[in-house]
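idk why but the lab printer keeps eating my pages so im just putting this in chat instead. protein + coenzyme A:
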Amino acid sequence: MYTGEKVKLRAYRREDVALAQQYLNDAETKRFLMPGVPYPFTLEEENKWFENISSHKDIYSFAVETIAEGKYIGGCGVNGLDWKNSVATVGIFIGDKNYWGKGYGTDAMKVLLKFIFEQMNINKVKLFVYSFNERAVKSYEKCGFVREGVLKQEIFRDGKYNDEYVMAILKEEYFQQKFI
Ligand SMILES: CC(C)(COP(=O)(O)OP(=O)(O)OC[C@H]1O[C@@H](n2cnc3c(N)ncnc32)[C@H](O)[C@@H]1OP(=O)(O)O)[C@@H](O)C(=O)NCCC(=O)NCCS
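predcted complex ->
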């Protein structure tokens, strides 16, 4: 059900944890992901995260696996859920840099949007992205996200304050683009 053209979204497995730690400790990847001080995660922290993912009722975390090789290359999912207003906040990372810029992340996000709009019945999906992450902005636009706002000087990174964008897609926009 959760399969795209290049990737499928599946549950995380314990054997993904070591690779997840390696992916998330890469300085270039971390630069795009963590608002805080970019400091390495320990294997213990990663294991604790794995133990906790199934116990959070409003978090849906998927491992992203390539269809061709069956390789775990990253993750995506719903990090925040506001059922009353029907808004989901999502995040994504492709950790294996060999797969950057080749459509894998966009495909994973499209599968995630399908899951959220067609299975969870959510009205709006939003995300946050740093202004210097041009690859991600472009990928999100390809999925139908539009920029709704700018949080000025929100992220101090690499010696300066950078803006953060809020991007979103509504259910009606998702279905419009799907049936065009
Ligand atoms: C962001 C991410 C999910 C996008 O997935 P992806 O598979 O790399 O994206 P795609 O290949 O589908 O699309 C990227 C687009 O940006 C373009 N692009 C690639 N590198 C770029 C760069 N340095 N600057 C501007 N555009 C760039 C590509 O040409 C492509 O556009 P096109 O299809 O019109 O040619 C993935 O790169 C990633 O996980 N990066 C590291 C972590 C991260 O940034 N997560 C998101 C945090 S908000």
